[in-house]
Amino acid sequence: MINRIKLSTVTTYKFGGYCENFIELNSKEDLNHLKNLNNFNKIFILGKGSNVAFSDKGYEGTVVRSNLNDINYNSEKGEIKVEAGYYLPDLARFYKKHDLENAEFLIGIPGSVGGAVKMNAGAYENEFGDIVKDVQTYNLESRKFEIFSSEEMEFSYRKSKDLKNRIVISVNLKALPGNPNKINKKLKSYIRYRKRTQPAGIYNAGSVFKNGDDYSAGELIDKAGLKGYSVDGVRVSEKHANFFIAPKGSKATSLYNLVNYVKEKVETQQGVSLEKEILFIGDFE
Ligand SMILES: Cc1cc2nc3c(=O)[nH]c(=O)nc-3n(C[C@H](O)[C@H](O)[C@H](O)COP(=O)(O)OP(=O)(O)OC[C@H]3O[C@@H](n4cnc5c(N)ncnc54)[C@H](O)[C@@H]3O)c2cc1C
Prior knowledge:
Layout: E1 2-6, E2 18-25, E3 43-46, E4 52-54, E5 59-66, E6 71-74, E7 79-83, H1 88-97, E8 100-101, H2 113-119, E9 122-123, E10 126-127, H3 128-131, E11 132-139, E12 144-149, E13 166-174, E14 176-177, H4 180-197, H5 217-223, E15 230-231, E16 234-236, E17 244-245, H6 252-270, E18 279-281
Parallel strand pairs: 2-5, 3-5, 4-18
Antiparallel strand pairs: 1-2, 6-7, 7-13, 8-14, 9-10, 11-12, 11-13, 15-16, 16-17
The structure holds flavin-adenine dinucleotide.
């Protein structure tokens, strides 16, 4: 089903204008709606929108969101098969329910499995790629399903293989039995840590810039004296300098200008060129 949608309703930042072609996949049959797509430069695949800022002018092309949400644990194979729309904190809870370890770090990351594959989401020295066995995608050009092994996905820091017009459909994950007390303890400490160090998961998209091998982006922004600095209401969080908060009613353009301002200040003051982690989609000029 193709709908007109205000993009502010489908991202954690809660801004963005209209998209006239918003396609939701609620079953694999819905992939048929994608058969007539041909301008592959103008397709954006959306997960939970927790790493994205859409332009206030909207998005001229097509946005496709996968709501496929099945999950299945096969204890004999030591494997979980999960579809792309599954919410990461729910995945952490699913692992806990079955006394499985190594997914605790996902508890505070408000994205989807598809987004976690693409971004190689991570925290506390864990990354999504560490638990991936293989990834099933749908190729919009050839209209075929494909499978990529974990190695073929080329996971690295907040990055994976360029999927080139492929939609992540489902993922097979490693499911290792663990000690329930340890799993529980980890989950609790991660939740506490986030509450203490980061703003709540609304009106932001997590870390704005990537960390470097030898620096923390947040520390550099803090050192530059930019905590609390704002552009038209969008501000660098006082709690964590690598989170930028855009209160209700603010504009994506203000975030864009703030991000560029901070990048320039850090570069001139400290000689480090920060790389954006959040994605600006649409026209920002
Ligand atoms: C409060 C908060 C805390 C956060 N903490 C962390 C953290 O600790 N670690 C971390 O890594 N990130 C963190 N993030 C950022 C974000 O949650 C992750 O990057 C997450 O993986 C994005 O998933 P998503 O489903 O929201 O993807 P989106 O933001 O919707 O999209 C991100 C990218 O994934 C692609 N994509 C999404 N779904 C698919 C699919 N099915 N097929 C192909 N491509 C797809 C999109 O095209 C886009 O390129 C945080 C965000 C917030 C708001």
